[in-house]
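Tutorial, part two.
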Amino acid sequence: MKTKTADVRQDDDKYRAPALSKGLDILELLASSAEGLTQIEIAKQLGRTTSEIFRMLMVLRQRGYVDLYADDDRYHLTTRMFELAHRHPPTRRLTSIAGEAMQRLADQVNQSMHLGIIHSGRVLVIAQVDCQDNNVTSVRLGAHIPIFETASGRVLAAWMEEDRLARLVGDAGQEPRDKYKAFIDDLPAVRAAGYCAQPSLTIEGVQNISAPIFDFRGGVIAAVTIPFVHRLTGTSAASAEDCRARLVAMAADISRRLGAGAALDDPAPLG
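Running the prediction step on this input gives:
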């Protein structure tokens, strides 16, 4: 007589796809390596032979998912995964609706801005626009930024339920206790205010201003952020306070266009 556990194990064996698993293991490993990895390093970290890793790398390279740096033998991810993500209808709709509004506001306040979502425990920049000034402070499109170091990470986390927030923090990885505590302690105030405005934790002199974008279910699906800089020359710009007010209004308008309703009127702190 077969047990339920045996049936589950049999089903697992039935649907096993070793080659697919190896390919996904390589992609996930390279996604966490900023400098790329050699074939030998990949094989060692995944507990595989160099020959089986070589075959998988050749296929992934042919399909455009990985490539070699020009000056060494280290493999790294291409933008292929990022491009595929943008074909996904929700992301495409979000960037389509937000892009024009972001560019219009960037030109009005003479500041750059970017749009970020949560991906693998980090903030993934999925849209970025510059103002018309000669000097801009911008974030690279496709950048993965630690949530603990960003105003957008605080905005994306502030409206999360406790279990989802715990998963996010777990996915984000280990951080110094003071940085982790500062992040968690900031969330109630961000939710109460409806935005986050704080000095950049990575660039001196920059004030990050970030506002949430809600979906029709009332969840925060993205954060739009201005890395505000005070200009001494060139075209005059709006003040930080004016930028914040306009940014919050723009994010609310984008949210409404995405079907959000009651969430826009719920500034209550986390319980």
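DSSP finds ten helices and nine strands in the chain. In part three we will examine how such features are distributed along the chain.
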